[in-house]
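Hello, quick one for you while I still have it in my head. A protein chain has come my way and I'm curious about its shape. Can you walk me through what the tokens say about the fold? No rush at all, and the record is pasted right below.
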Amino acid sequence: MKKFLIGLGTLFVLLILALAIAPFLLKGKIESAVNTALDENLNADVYYDSEQFSLSFFKDFPNLTVSMGDFGVVGHAPFEQDTLAQIGEFSLSVNVGSVLSGSIALNEIILDRPDIRVKVLKDGSANYDIAKSDETAVEERPEESSGGSGASFSIDHWEIIDGKLSYDDFGSQMHLVIDGLQHQGEGDFDQDIFDLSSHTQIGEMSFAMEGTEYLHKRALEADATININLPHMKFTFKENTLRLNELALGFDGYVAMPAEDIEMDLTFASKDNSLKAVLSLIPEEFMKDLEGFKSDGEFDIHGHAKGIFNDNQMPAFGLSVNVEDGKIQYPDLPTAIRNLNMAMEIENKDGIIENTSVNIPKFHMDLGKNPIDAKLLVKDLKKYNIEGNLKGTIDLADLSDLAHQEGLTMKGIYKVDISADGYYDSLTNTIPKLDGSMSLANGYFQTADFPIPVKNVGFNAALKSPEGKMSTAFLKVNDFKMTMEKEVFDASMLIQNFNNPSWDVKAKGNIDLATMAKAFQLDSMELSGKIYADIVTKGKMSDLEAEAYDKLPTSGKVTLANLFYADADLPQGLRIANAEANFTPKTITLSGMTGKVGNSDIALNGKLKNYLAYALKDETLTGDINFTSKRFNLNQFMVEETEEEKGKAETKDPETAEGIVEIPKNINMVLNANIKETIYDEMTLTDLKGKIILKNGIASMEGVTFNTMGGQIALKGAYNSANPKNPTFDFDFDMSNIDIPQAYKSLNTVRAAAPVAQNMNGKFNTKFAMKGSLLQDMTPNFDALNGGGDIKINQASVNNSGLVQGISSISGFSSSNKTIDLKDVIMSTKIENGRVKVQPFDVQIGEYTATIQGSNGFDKSLDYKMSVVVPTGGLGDEANKVISGLLGGNTKAVPDAMRFKFDIGGNYDKPTYKLAGTESITTKTSSEKRQEDREQKKDVKDEAKKILDNLF
């Protein structure tokens, strides 16, 4: 006996060791088999922590428990960046014997901390569609198929612990989020008929569709026992309760799917639910601060569905909702909805949706002390046979209290009495016969966003369709009135023929702009003044859609008085003392507009045409406006940039830089200007007259003339902003008797193109053309500037020039005239790619004549050639001795005159120069002259340098 016990104990220990060792011996093969099965059957990347992959007989003896930790699935394109599932721990317990017998029995499946994220794209592709197709999946092994006829599957228990689920369908715009999911279930799937029991709890569930959130973090709890008949595919509800927030529903009946059709006989009903339970389901988007409500009353809902459901058929269904003695009230407010009683029946007896009827035979509630009653019957959802009425009185103060919105105040008595009887059919333009009236008395409205109250609001309105036709239906609003800060506004409106609506609207009243600024909280601007309007407009929708604006008779008058407007972009302010606009269907006539912009007076009158198309269809506004001013100061619109702003402008992307004046492309306007005095920078323009034409993004100038800089300028051309990234200009100037010093002081183009004008006196005439592009700060792009013309100088001089002193230093001629004189000079100039090119012209330097030609850039670079003829007879003895020395001491060979040639480079502030050659004015042969030039060049070079030093 002792040996037997020892042997039995030894056997037991060996069995325990075998159970402990076997999983370690099998782990590698099982893990490899799992990996192979996943790769062969899934179009996805599956990962898990191999160190958390375990096999054990002891967790659920005698069953084998397989566990995987940090288990996840990531899809392939287009979901390669999306995780479909992330599971903290996945485990299942299997009966080993059942596997050997071919009848797999799973004892338990547990998902711990699963996070499932389902996505469906607009094209219908879904990230959960990861199973390989028949073509790509591994074919079934022969031994598997041959022995599979007797295989079966069963499971005893499954559980989800602390789960999360998100479902995003971007095609249907449906989104579901579940957090805190706890679920347990059990059922013997090895039986043909068995009960499946489950318990589900959801901590928070949110659901939204097409941008509307219907559930927001609502709790759900469900207990369900369903009898499953697998041979007949019939599912019978036994004991079932679904609780969503505080609303509990019970289900009875069955659903069967013996073939393709779905058979059902279902009923559902609320279980002892109050009105408060229903209110707990109202989306927060529609009902804020729900917890603050007090609610009482009985609520009952029940429904049914019975019949066949398939692609062509629906079951019969019904829904019944009843509310009795309902009450809803905020705890701190006196106003409540009381005596809420409603009955609603939705019934469909044959599954044909058109045969559905909606019947609300009773609806009543008291809002404060005012009753509201309604009823509605809709039969036949194809032709919509409608019978109903709504009658009630609402004290808006009660409604304001009930809305419970901060800053909202409403007052007044609103009454409605409307009835409908007949058919609605859009194909035949039939509507029910309507007889309705609405009115508001002593209305008062104020909101947080509109803090200025609108008072004394009132109207009477009638909505009627006596024949039940859209063509004879009408809405008439009489005696509409409102007051805002003592300003009264009146209006009336008649809309007829709902097929092709026609309108007749009259509006008359005053608007205080200071009040509007307060009402709309326009804190960034100053606005005051009054508008008086008296407008009548009529028309038909068909004419409006056909853009037949001449058939929309609009007339009336708008008067503006004492307007003042200022903001950050217009700090100097706009003041309009008076303005009047008269309307016709085609034209707005502006007259009597006078005022000031800053310190500049303005006066406008003229006409605007096609204004309706411009306002409604963004078409072209045309007009002819006269603009006059005694003194218009443009400098008040020019703000000097700070160093910080300049730095920002230098680093700004050219394509996004601001500053370009963009002419609207849908403006076709002629502006006739007549300005007595215009101030621009340091220039004063007098008697400015001409036309400025705005069209297609281009501002053209025609016949523009003005006096400035001591003379007169005529201007024509265009500024083109059609491409705001590269605005261009093309102008012709006709300038007469322009004072040179004033031109240098006033025009940056003159300073850049002719810096020598800084030391000049005199006047000039020119006809000059200039075209190019503008930078984003509205200054010319000098590198791409082109143009040209003749500059005529009748009499001018250059003062403080070193040129005369330079010539005197080598001639010995002493002259009191130290200036350079220009008389009857014509300078032919041409601007190409940012350089001013000048053809040869002569100037008088004291007693000497100089010829100059070449070019200079807008960057002040110089490239000029100059020749000076110096008579030897007037040079003096010392100079003649020098020249004689250069000629070999032969005094008889001294010519009558010498021509000095210079190349001038560098820039205007720091020129460079060199002697290009000399030439004797004699009768000698060319060869003799060349020989003398070579001999003289070296010795004369020093003397020439002395002249240039004094010249500049």
